[in-house]
Structure formats: C-alpha cells, structure tokens
Amino acid sequence: MMNIVIEKMSDTHITQIGKLETECFSVPWSENALREELTNEFARFFVALCDGEVAGYIGAHNILGEVYITNVAVFTKYRRRGIAETLIKNLICISTSENADFITLEVRKSNVGAINLYTKMGFKTVGERKSFYENPREDALLMTYNL
Q1: Which pairs with CB-CB distance under 8 Å and at least 24 residues apart come from 35-42?
Q2: pLDDT (tens digit, 9 = 90+) per residue, 109-133?
C-alpha cells in the first residue's frame, strides 16, 4: 500500500490541481477559481500527496452545517489505490468535528465507479438533477451522507 498524505490545499498545489481538473472534467475549474478557494472561509479543500506529488484532491464548502462536495478527482495513474476514499474519510472527519449535519454531492449517472465508491462509504441517493452536466449533457444523482 502506498503512503498517502492528506494536507490542506495551498498555492503550491494549484498548478497540479489545475492539470488534474483538465484530465478529469469536461468543464474544469481554472487555476484562478481554485486559488480563490484559498481565501474562502467556507472552503474545505484538501490534496492527497504520494511521494510529495499531488495524486488527487477534494473540494467542499461547509455553509451552516451543510457540506457540499464540489469535486473529487484523482489522477488516472493513481486510481484504484484508495486515494478518493481517504480524501472522503478526511472530509467526513473534519465535517464531523465542525458539527455539520450532512455532506452532499452530485455525480454523473454514468459514473458507476464513483457511485459505487460513494455508496460503499455510506452515501445514499436522495434525488436526481436533470441535465445537470454539460459536455456531454447528462443527469446527475444527488447523494447525501448524514453525519
């Protein structure tokens, strides 16, 4: 098993996370958008480092005890090694320590791997958002984890 270190996102991570966004998403966040999260009091952004290299990250906002995951992404070469699971567990711990009520996210209906991971971790499908995603247009499942 590889050594995964989770730390708070900092400016030194932005370039790599920008590359990760481009690899993983059809509508990626820009480096400027990521950088803005560094000063957002509601933002909870963390990176997973493997041998000092960004392997993945998670971004969320905690507003009045409702935690909304904006993104979970892992570079292709690091997938299926428990990195996304470790990032989500870290967010669950932090959200619990902040007395949040629940964590919620959207996921493409076709993203079976992510849906299986979220389900395994205790997230429940609570709804659907029609035509939520672009490039390609697709519905999203709304999933929630109660703390």
Answers
A1: 35/11, 37/9, 38/9, 38/10, 38/11
A2: 999 999 999 999 999 999 999 999 9
What pLDDT shows up at residue 71? 95
Using CA atoms, how far residue 3 sits from 12, 27, 54, 117, in Å, is 20, 30, 12, 20
H or E stretch at 141: strand 138-146
Give the mean pLDDT of the chain. 96
Half-sphere exposure of 35 (CA within 13 A, CB side): 7
Is the peptide bond prior to 136 cis by the omega test (within 30 degrees of 0)?
A: yes
Helix (H, G, I), strand (E, B) or coil at 104: strand
Q: How far is CA 117 from CA 35, 107, 123, 134, in A?
A: 28, 11, 9, 23
Determine phi and psi for 7, rounding to 5 degrees: -140, 160
For the chain, what is the radius of gyration of the CA atoms?
Answer: 14
Tokens representing 143 are: 């999933």
